[in-house]
Amino acid sequence: MDPFYAYVKSTSYVKYFARLTPESYTHDGGINMANYVTIRDCAPQFLNKVFFTLLTNRDVPGASPILEQHITDHVSGTLFFIRAKVDHDQFWYLPNSPASNVYVSRTDRTLFRIDIANGEKNEGRGTIMVATDNITITSVSTEQDLPISSTGNKLELFSFGDLKGGFRVSTAREAVESEDERALVRTDAGESWAGELIYKRP
């Protein structure tokens, strides 16, 4: 639903919407919001992808959707731990060194801040992130903030969608001292590593 909401926010129809969770929204009961998608071309690319329903109440029967109970709110500027979807014991870990690689570790984890990259600092703070957004990932520690990059110690732009298939665990062992850690690298094809954001605090 968030990609749908992100698009609607760019139109005048956003005033009719309220976001409750990443999967659930409400809209003004005085309008037929489905018609804005199917007839008025507010967001025609989302036909057959969004579902409008009247929630069950005492007076009117309706469908009661079963929503996912544990879902992360992907808000720009929030601090996250990043872990593997398949194996929840594998977390991103960045040793507190400017020259260090990012690793996948079972014993250590690093807190990261993810921001929408809109040019100005904090410009996208509080914005809901979707797969097509450019983002920056910064390691947050008590000593220093370290930008995450695959090409050296600089702030690199990633796509938010890269967290689903844009990284993989390196098979090279020579750069890793601990058997519990494996280096993380970018990838466009082949073995991919899907990241899941675990909400920490704003």
From TrEMBL:
Domain of life, per lineage: Eukaryota
This protein's name: Uncharacterized protein
Organism per entry: Neolentinus lepideus HHB14362 ss-1
Classification lineage: Eukaryota, Fungi, Dikarya, Basidiomycota, Agaricomycotina
